[in-house]
Amino acid sequence: MEASSERKEKLVLLVDSDVETRFVIQPLLRPYGLELVIARAGIVALEVMQRMANRFRLALVSMELPGISGKVVYETLRHFRPTLPVLCLSASAQGGGAACLPKPIQAVDIAAWLGRVLGGTHPDERDHLPGAAAAPDALSRAQSRYGMTGSLLDAARELARGMPGEGPTDW
What we know:
171 residues
């Protein structure tokens, strides 16, 4: 059986429109032989994850995204890619507590998280984001929709309909 630190996936998905975040994260991945794939919007991130599902080692998701919110992307990945470690990044003072790293990103914080994840530890960051959990009926609809279509974007739409602060989805 292959240890998690020896997994073959070499891609890291960064879902963020902030260029500075990329400059902090990219050099930290090199020692691990990982490559950064950047999606500047949530829809793009879910489409990339849909097409290349088994190629990603981990994902970092900004809460401040255009269009589909970071909360929806985070929760969609958490529910429909449960073995993928996902970290929340937030510029908001409310951020998400232990579930999020504050922006601007500090290299030492990302390095510590990477060390835990790549060392095989499933971090606490996998917890629900405060205020982001979808209503049970929305999760049920999302699971049903995903079962019918296999689409992360379809599942995300259903989750968004049942999440606090998420309006009608026109994406």
